[in-house]
Every structure is written in C-alpha cells, then in structure tokens.
Design brief:
CATH class: Alpha Beta
Largest sheet: 6 strands, antiparallel
Radius of gyration: 17 Å
Distance between the termini: 33 Å
Strand content: 15-25%
Shape: globular
Strand order of the largest sheet: 1-2-3-4-6-5
Order of helices and strands: EEHHEEHEE
Number of domains: 1
Length: 182
C-alpha cells in the first residue's frame, strides 16, 4: 500500500474542533495515509515542511513543525505499533486563517492511528535531567508547537492534534505555480 494521498474520508472519526482558532469541522485541505514504515518518514516531513513554507512560515518554524511531526510518527511506529511496519497512519492538514484583530494565521495537523489506547495524561516526555539517548519526542513536540492535544479515538487508536500559529509572513502571488496555458 505504501504512502497514499487521499481526497476522501476513510471511515475515520475526524475531529470537529472548536476553540479560539476557529471551527475545524470542515474537511482537511490535505490528507495523507501512510504505512507505519520508517521509509516514509522523510516524505511526510518534506510534505509538512513544504505546506508550512507555502503558508508563509519561516524556515526555522518549517523545520520545527516537520520535526514535531517526525517525532510523533516515530512514537506511533515505535510505541503504538511496536515496530509493525504494516499499520496505517493518517495525517490531516488545515491552514488556520487569521480571524479578527488578534487572530494569527497558522497550521493545524492531526495525526491518527489504530494503536492501542494510551491515557493522554501519561503522554509525557522523560525528565530532561535524565541524560541519555531517546525519550525526548513528546518534550520536543510540546516545545516547538503552540498547542498539542492527545486524545483517544473511537473505537480504537489515538489522535494527536498539533497547532502552530504566528511567524507567518503574508503570502505572495502563487498564481505562477499553476500552468493554465491549456
């Protein structure tokens, strides 16, 4: 199956998010379905960084967003699926448009899986004073993203919602990206 970009729903319970960043009960602008194979991590990182770049995020923010997604996907593969490389992972992406005077544009990503439920209260990184390799993924995700939310999906699996706002420069004219000479 590999990595597949899908335009339609796959029977997943999608988030209907409200809150101070606007309702998100609309269909994701981009959906990516991939297998839990580390081979596809670079492609997912590149896609997310490219979308963030097109939305006007700085190069540093693009790298941070891609790092957060990479850490989250690694955690799904390593901990959720115990290294099984044949399980599905879904990434959905929405731009956040500035609303009102104080609103900031941004990006919202949702990563979903079918791994066993984990109590979101136990999704904590290890103590930073504990110097050793690994175990910093959750800490990194929380550090580089503005809002991070773990929740259980019904009937099984987990949903991670990542939000990054601000640091977005006004986008230029992207009409040159589309060849309409036909």
């Amino acid at each position: 199956m590999g990595a597949v970009v899908r335009g339609g729903e796959r029977g997943l319970t999608r988030p209907a998010m409200d809150g101070n960043r606007g309702a998100m009960d609309t269909q994701a602008h981009i959906k990516l379905e991939l297998l839990s194979n580390p081979l596809y991590l670079a492609g997912a990182r590149e896609l997310v960084a490219s979308v963030a770049r097109r939305l006007g995020f700085s190069e540093i923010s693009c790298a941070q967003i891609a790092l957060a997604v990479d850490e989250a996907l690694c955690n799904v593969i390593r901990h959720g699926y115990a290294g099984d490389q044949s399980r599905p992972i879904w990434i959905s992406i929405w731009p956040i448009e500035a609303e009102g005077e104080d609103g900031e544009p941004g990006l919202r990503l949702v990563i979903e899986d079918e791994a066993p439920h984990v109590d979101p209260e136990h999704m904590k990184g290890r103590d930073l004073d504990d110097i050793r390799p690994g175990g910093l993924g959750v800490h990194i995700i929380r550090e580089v993203m503005d809002d991070v939310s773990y929740e259980k999906r019904a009937p099984g699996g987990m949903r991670l919602t990542l939000t990054k706002v601000g640091d977005v420069q006004p986008s230029g004219d992207t009409s040159s990206d589309v060849d309409d000479s036909d």
